[in-house]
Inverse folding.
């Protein structure tokens, strides 16, 4: 996939709490190299914790965050293409992240899904009709984006979704 762009104003709010919040405050008060490195590490750690809560298995997972460019670099090895795409979406669907540099390796390569960014007024049925020609395949999109999506009606503008190829 390479470098994928995201809307940095949309997504999970991971950086405003815990260690990430403390690091933000320290970097704002004293923007020296140590505090900026601490902030970048805290942001990367928050993203790793988020990936872990989604139950996505990545061997050798490494996440780096560059606050200057708002870019996450993620690497490691995953079993399949779906897991790779979900990990990339977990990294990119975080408020404050503008891009993800995908360095993940897939053990069993498969065709890539398309990435779609939700706009105001979208529903999974509407997206399904656009990509598959029928609104009835909305559950295919929903299942492809689990566990990040918990309900088919809970999507938001700016969120990036996987649109898998039809088998």
């Amino acid at each position: 996939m390479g470098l994928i762009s995201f809307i940095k104003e949309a997504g999970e709010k991971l950086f405003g709490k815990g260690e990430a919040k403390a690091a933000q405050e320290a970097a704002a008060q004293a923007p020296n190299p140590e505090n900026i490195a601490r902030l970048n590490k805290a942001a990367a750690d928050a993203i790793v914790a988020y990936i872990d809560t989604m139950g996505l298995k990545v061997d050798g997972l490494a996440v780096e965050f560059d606050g200057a460019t708002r870019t996450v670099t993620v690497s490691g090895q995953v079993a399949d293409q779906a897991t790779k795409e979900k990990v990339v979406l977990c990294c990119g669907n975080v408020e404050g992240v503008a891009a993800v540099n995908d360095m993940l390796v897939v053990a069993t390569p498969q065709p890539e899904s398309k990435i779609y960014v939700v706009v105001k007024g979208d529903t999974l049925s509407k997206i399904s009709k656009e990509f598959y020609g029928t609104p009835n395949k909305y559950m295919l999109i929903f299942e492809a984006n689990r566990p990040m999506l918990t309900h088919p009606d809970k999507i938001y503008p700016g969120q990036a979704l996987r649109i898998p190829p039809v088998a």
Strands lie at 2-5, 59-66, 71-80, 99-108, 114-117, 160-163. The longest strand covers residues 71-80. The domain at 114-163 is CATH 3.10.350.10 (Membrane-bound Lytic Murein Transglycosylase D; Chain A).
